[in-house]
Amino acid sequence: MNTSEFLTVTAAIVPDRNAIIFDAKHITFGQMMERVNRLANALADLGVGPGDRVATMQVNCNEYVESYFAVAKLDAVFVPINFRARADELTFMLNDSGTKALLVGQRYLDMVTSIKPSLTSLQTAISLEAARPGFPAYDDLLAKASDEERFPTGEEDDLTIIMFTAGTTGTPKGVMLSHNSFTSYILNNVDPVDLDSEEKNILTVPLHHIAGIQAVMAAIYGGRTLVLQRQFEEEEWMRLVQDEQVNRAMMVPTMLKRLMDHAKFKEYNLSSLQVITYGAAPMPLVIIQQAIKVFPDTRFINAFGQTETASTITMLPPEDHNIREGEADYEKKLKRLSSIGKPLPDVEVLIVDEDGKKTAVGVSGEIVARGSRLMKGYWNREEATKETLRGGWLYTGDLGYFDADGYIFLSGRAKDFIKRGGEMVAPEEVEQILHSHPSIDEAAIIGVPDVEWGERILAVAVKKPGKEVTEQELIDFCRPHMAGFKRPEKVVFVKELPRNPMGKVLKRELRQQYPGPLETI
After folding, report:
1. Residue 467's domain spans which residues?
2. Deepest in the core among 18, 234, 346, 348, taking most CB within 10 A?
3. 490-493: which pairs have CB atoms within 8 A and are 24 or more residues apart?
């Protein structure tokens, strides 16, 4: 099944129901279908066809959602770009993916203009807002294009999205996801559109993130109205939930904590919320316990996954969040709140040792998954693909163990990725920038546990003999080279980094030496 059919079917059943509420705009499923067809025809007129890559760089907006479905209708490939990417990062992702057309927000036009001479495949760039020389306006293209419906002809296993994630080599890796990567999950876990049932889903998770894309797919297939927020802002979120009577929300732990800590939290009526799904980063136990208390009538779902698995592979369902002190199984259920639940029915999950053999209950190993919706591999990364996809299993890089009841508990990560506020950071990428500073001999990046952000970024650096540089100077040096969430928040200077006999930096020792929180280091 092609993912564009989610919209086709829902628009046919509930054409007059709102598909998207964004700012002052209310766009019905019927109107969205027309806009998507117009965009698909406009892109086709610009030369976009099957297999071509089309990138989008913008904060959340209705045009972002429309762009995906239009690209899918053309059997082309969607490339969502992190809107916080810097010029070097953007250049790499556009060239690596071979992007042919780019739809871009107005605030990023100057950056795109500056890198155009370095772009090797880009032929068309479209402004999602006002037109500029070299950047025709999105709405102008729609107004001129035909609204004739386009039908995809590709297979369900064809590539539909290349989603960039942090890479161990220091450059982002493009995760290749097929239509089936999404339809497998949606058809097995989401109720289809219902004429008599209406829900509203607030979406603040960025659409360049797998959780954001999955939430869009689920909402469109389920006939839910998407209430879009450009970026998460606590009071606006509460106002939208109250005014629009929102029923569902997807949040990362950092968002939930900031919400509950807000001075005006109790001034808003959030009682319409029936379901809050959280994920993308570990949830501190104290935060979810607080959330259960302050949202007594809301069901919580912990969704665990990664880009390579097309998001959720395990889930801790609402019933496991219903805990009350004094109950006979209170301690057991409290412990389960720290788990990532059980595997979903459309995916098989095991925990294996270094030899790939299944571990016993309670014994940690690497979490591996198998199923029809896993990634096809990494774009232009044959060796990385072979390392991650082995014998039909996807090796997630996360460590965990099963308890006797089949719940999975995380126990660390096999790789050194850092998860800060739901965003993945590859230490090697930051280290390469630090190594380029004239006063730095070597540096290591580690994640320090943090209640609000999940992890925060610490740089441990060694100065070159006779050279001087301050902590702030080094942080500022990183600023033009990378997105803000990747930058070190603190720098510690040491005489040397711990290494093993083969010369590898022992980051485990660094994490033991600097356990956090960051303010105490």
Report:
1. 418-520
2. 18
3. 490/456, 490/457, 490/458, 490/459, 490/518, 490/521, 491/458, 491/459, 491/460, 491/461, 492/458, 492/459, 492/460, 492/461, 492/521, 493/461, 493/462, 493/463
CATH of the domain at 476: 3.30.300.30
- The answer to whether the beta carbons of residues 16 and 28 sit under 8 Å apart is yes
Q: Judge whether 375 lies within some domain.
A: no
| Nearest residue to 409 via CA among 290, 316, 345 | 316
Is 55 inside any structural domain? Answer: yes
Please give the Cα distance from 447 to 419 (Å, whole number).
Answer: 8
Domain total in the chain: 2
> CA separation (Å) from 34 to 5, 47, 221, 332?
14, 20, 17, 52
Q: Which of 231, 256, 278 is the last residue of a domain?
A: 231
Would you say the C-alpha torsion 218, 28, 15, 155 has a positive or negative sign? negative
DSSP string, 373-422: TS--EEET-HHHHHHHEETTEEEEEEEEEE-TTS-EEEEEESS--EEETT
Question: Is the N-terminal amide bond of 284 cis, ω within 30° of 0?
Answer: no
Q: Locate tokens 């590898």: which residue?
A: 504
The three-class DSSP label of residue 325 is coil
In a domain, 342, yes or no: no
**CA-to-CA dists, residue 261 to 111, 258, 283, 292, angstroms:** 36, 5, 16, 14
Where is the domain boundary, 199, 231, 263?
A: 231
Cα–Cα distance measured from residue 121 to residue 101, given in angstroms and rounded to the nearest whole number = 9
In a domain, 331, yes or no: no
Cβ(74)–Cβ(44) below 8 Å: yes
pTM: 0.85
Containing 25, the helix (H) or strand (E) segment is strand 25-28
Phi-psi bin for 138: left (phi > 0), alpha (psi -120 to 50), beta?
alpha
Q: How many residues make up the chain in this entry?
A: 521
pLDDT of the residue at 131: 96
Tokens of 479: 């600023």
Mean pLDDT on 168-175: 76
Residue 296 CB-density burial (10 A; 0-12 exposed, 13-18 middle, 19+ buried): exposed
* Per-residue DSSP letter, 189: H
Asked whether the predicted pLDDT for residue 169 surpasses 60, the reply is no
Mean pLDDT of the chain: 93
CB 86 within 8 A of CB 108: no
Query: Domain holding 48: CATH number?
Result: 3.40.50.12780
CA dist 37 and 33 (Å) reads 6
Window from 310-319, 413-422, 447-456, 504-513 with minimum mean pLDDT: 413-422
Nearest-angstrom CA–CA distance, 189 and 192: 10
The C-alpha atoms of residue 54 and residue 70 are separated, in whole angstroms, by: 10
Percentage of residues of the chain with pLDDT beyond 90? 80
Identity (one letter) of the amino acid at 160? T
Cα–Cα distances in angstroms (integers) from residue 475 to residues 2, 22, 431, 452, 482, in the given order? 45, 36, 12, 21, 11
